[in-house]
Amino acid sequence: MKDLILNILSKNKECYTSGESLSKILGVSRAAIWKHIKQLREDGYNIESFSKKGYKLLSCPDILSYEEVSPYIKTNSMAKNYLHFDVLDSTNNKGKELWRELTHGTVIVAEQQNSGKGRLGRSWYCEKSKGILCSIILKPDLETKAVPKVTSLAAAAIYKTLKALDVDVKIKWPNDIILNGKKLCGVLTEMSGDMDSINYLIIGIGININSQANNFPKELTSIATSLALEYNKYFSRKEILGSLLSNFEILWDEFTKGDFSSTLKICKEASAILNKKVILLNRGIEERVTVIDITEEGELKVLDENNNEKLICSGEVSLRGINSYT
Ligand code: BT5
Predict the structure, then answer these.
(1) 217: CA distance to ligand 1 center in Å?
(2) Any residues with Cβ below 6 Å from ligand 1, and which?
């Protein structure tokens, strides 16, 4: 009901809508309308009311609730189930907890995480409502070996979304999105399954949107950045999330039809490391290599110091630039 009331008030932002007409349109009592308006105000909507005129929506809160994000989601299957939380330990953990009852394409979003996760036991830090913290739950009919491709697909969807805002990011295989040499976004793919089939895949995405320098812990200031920091302006989190989910669906639909070409093209063209020397970090061992390709399977093809070719699967390694983060 709250979303229906909001819908009507948003379409009539220039004028007042009376309680009587809302109750007629929605088929509920005026007292019920008043109760929902009260709840909307508690959610952060600034709704003006005058006894003889009715209600007028003055402003909406900067939250990623379904009511706020759904106008920007243009999908057929993704995000049909959308769960929004004020605080979670981790959106990926919530997905793992609930996966049995969640449908394919469910999206879990939090304003804040108390234990946001990175890869290999690392953590992801983001101050409340300054970024996008979301997980997409997938239940695909895929072989386990295809999973790394989905991380690349998510990175490509993020790239497409930001490119449409004229934000020129680079993809640092397999899961980092880099802006001006610093990390803007990370992807954490988790799965459960066996060699032959997958129970679920969880694609966790963290993007720094409106964080200021003092919103990052000291140890991150030299490696992390946000859109607001780089462009000195406020970005709409809801628009970015809606468009990200839409772009994810487009690439996902192609991928499940056997076409990985758009993702691969983006990952190669936007690569921060292709044709560069990088350091591979694998279980504490460092190795200098030159990146020469990203394969059809989404692996990294590198040349080691003895000019031997090697294929690196995502998840095995971390990468560092020789002289900088990229
Ligand atoms: C990642 O791991 O980059 C994956 C991050 C995924 C986060 C999302 S948020 C929603 C979903 N739910 C979760 O619990 N997680 C996912 P990795 O490549 O391991 O990078 C982690 C490292 O990035 C940390 O050790 C820090 O050095 C750095 N880092 C932490 N927070 C950051 C931030 N906000 N911006 C940039 N770098 C950050």
Answers:
(1) 13
(2) 90-92, 113, 116-120, 122, 124-126, 133-135, 175, 183, 186-188, 204-206, 208, 220, 223-224
**What is the rounded distance in angstroms from the CA atom of residue 63 to the CA atom of residue 76?**
23
**Average confidence score pLDDT of the chain:** 93
Residue minimizing CA distance to atom 16 of ligand 1 = 204
* Rounded to 5°, angle at Cα 206 from 185 and 179: 15
Which of 107, 124, 126, 191 has the most ligand 1 atoms within 8 A of CB, as the residue to mutate? 124
User: What is the per-residue pLDDT across 272-312, written as a single tens digit (0 to 9) for each?
Assistant: 999 999 888 887 788 899 999 999 989 999 999 999 999 99
Closest CA to 150 of 164, 163, 136: 136
The torsion region of residue 304 among left (phi > 0), alpha (psi -120 to 50) and beta comes to beta
Q: Whose CA is nearest to atom 25 of ligand 1?
A: 122
| The token pair that represents 323 in the structure block | 């002289």
Q: From CA 217, how far away is CA 282, in angstroms rounded?
A: 26
Return the structure tokens found at 51. 């006894």
Q: Which atom of ligand 1 is nearest to the CA of 224?
A: 36
Q: Which pLDDT score, from 0 to 100, does residue 325 have?
A: 63
Using the predicted structure, report yes or no on whether residue 199 has a pLDDT greater than 70.
yes
Give the Å distance between the CA of 298 and the centre of ligand 1.
Answer: 21
Provide the whole-model pTM.
0.91
Phi, psi of 60 (to 5 degrees): -110, 150
d(CA 146, CA 314): 11
Q: What is the spatial distance between Cα 25 and Cα 17, in angstroms, rounded to a whole number?
A: 11
> What value does the mean pLDDT take over residues 175-204?
93
85-138 pLDDT, tens digit per residue, is 999 999 999 999 999 999 999 999 999 999 999 998 999 999 999 999 999 999
